[in-house]
Amino acid sequence: MAKIAVVGCGYVGLGTAAVFADLGNQVIGLDVDATRVERLQAGDCPIFEPGLEEILLRNVQAGRLRFTTEYAEALVEAEFAFICVSTPMGPHGGANMRYVRQAARSIGQHLAPGRRTIVVNKSTMPPGSGDLVGALLGEEISQDARYAVVANPEFLREGTAVQDMLHPDRVVLGATDRTAAEAVATLYQPFNAPIVITNLRTAEMIKYAANAFLATRISFINEIAHICEALGADVRQVSQAIGLDKRIGPHFLNAGIGFGGSCFPKDAQALEYMAAVADCYPQLLRAVLDINRAGRRSFVSKLDRMLGGLDGRVIAVWGLAFKPNTDDLREAPALDIIRELISCGAQVKAYDPAAMPNARELLPGIGFCSDPYEAAAGADAVALITEWNEFKGLDLGRVHSLMRRAVLVDGRNLYDPYEMASLGFTYRGVGVPVVEALEGEPEEVEVQQLVSGD
Ligand code: UGA
């Protein structure tokens, strides 16, 4: 069993620390935030992540996992030091490497003498970062401490972090020294996943390419949804049918108001920036980002059209987090949408099962409700932004009876347009047919000139 230090106790760091400890390794998590460390040491998980608290507590109690703010303590015995600090978006769209630099320098200053420590870059870092971390370690080490750097990008999703850690599709390891990559590979052996060993820059690029590709699929299907809406087709069935093609596959083809979160917007932007700086012309990435921004604007325009203006309207917002099963609001579409609604004079009443404590500071001037019914009461429209399971099982008849006007704009295609019409709602999804209340038939679309060939 290995001795592992994990620097940075956010989603990636905690997931990594907890799962490696659960496999029987001795793990010590380091964070500069003393309050966070204190909570973690008591087995109290500071982030909302299903299943994580249980596994943290179990391993803290078993003595395999502990936390500290001190590099000296974290590194004294560590064979592996994972860098899991954040790489936020910099002012020009590139990754801000401030925290990585600080972590690398501090690790370098405290590397144990007389043996080799393998420093593993797990944070998302631009190609070239492995070399940078190596150089910073080299500047800081003293005595006869030795090190090797391995890039090991993480592919876990928020909300399913523990499961994703336990069942990776593949493990990517990049290194100049193959023995270092192979040593890290032994940590992953219990997962039984394919291991891809590359050079440092390739491993770093794999992470950006994976996120950019997934973001591209989402923007692609959102563009198709837009066209479906104009031509009277149903994007849900289009996604299902194209997804059955094995070459395409079913994942990340849910149309909606677009992607948010701490990764896709930031990483697509950073890749676009790096490409532009390198004199490449990243036209596809630019389109992916443009389409994503447009999704938020067109959602507000749809509400505006349906209500005949937004000034003075009361809008119930269901869902604030950037996706279900998280309380994370980073780059959440809800933030842009709510700010735009407010600037157009609307009054917003919001409900989210997990993200309201985080939202209170970011969204002053809106009302927070204790459930979706309270939010809908007296509203001119419901704007569904995050597809929490809780919203699937609601008594929509009751919602209808509580609203001032039964308008529901569904940014995630959670509901069926025919059912909504039969309940008396004026309902709009993204790229789905418009079904008028009472009639129950799809709206006829003017496609004559397209099919006649004239
Ligand atoms: C994403 C990747 O899926 C992970 O593999 C990666 O490790 C992570 O970024 C990261 O770089 O750290 P995450 O941001 O947690 O994970 O969330 P996803 O589940 O991928 O969703 C991202 C966004 O895409 C959400 O806003 C979601 O609503 C949206 N989405 C996803 C769609 O609009 N349609 C889809 O079909 C799928």
Task: Kindly list the characteristics that best describe this protein.
eight-stranded mixed β-sheet; Rossmann fold; binds uridine-5'-diphosphate-glucuronic acid; 454 residues; 2 domains; six-stranded parallel β-sheet
Description:
The chain is an alpha/beta fold and 454 residues long. It has two domains: 3-198, NAD(P)-binding Rossmann-like Domain (Rossmann fold, 3-Layer(aba) Sandwich); 213-428, NAD(P)-binding Rossmann-like Domain (Rossmann fold, 3-Layer(aba) Sandwich), CATH 3.40.50. Helices cover 44% and strands 14% of the residues. It has helices at 11-22, 34-41, 52-61, 71-75, 98-110, 129-140, 161-166, 178-188, 200-231, 235-243, 264-277, 283-307, 333-343, 356-362, 372-376, 396-402, 417-422, 448-452, and strands at residues 3-7, 26-30, 65-68, 80-83, 116-121, 146-151, 171-175, 195-198, 314-318, 347-351, 367-368, 381-384, 407-410, 426-428. Strands 3-2-1-4-5-6-7-8 form an eight-stranded mixed sheet, with helices on both faces. Strands 11-10-9-12-13-14 form a six-stranded parallel sheet. The structure holds uridine-5'-diphosphate-glucuronic acid (UGA). The site of uridine-5'-diphosphate-glucuronic acid has 21 residues, from helix 9.
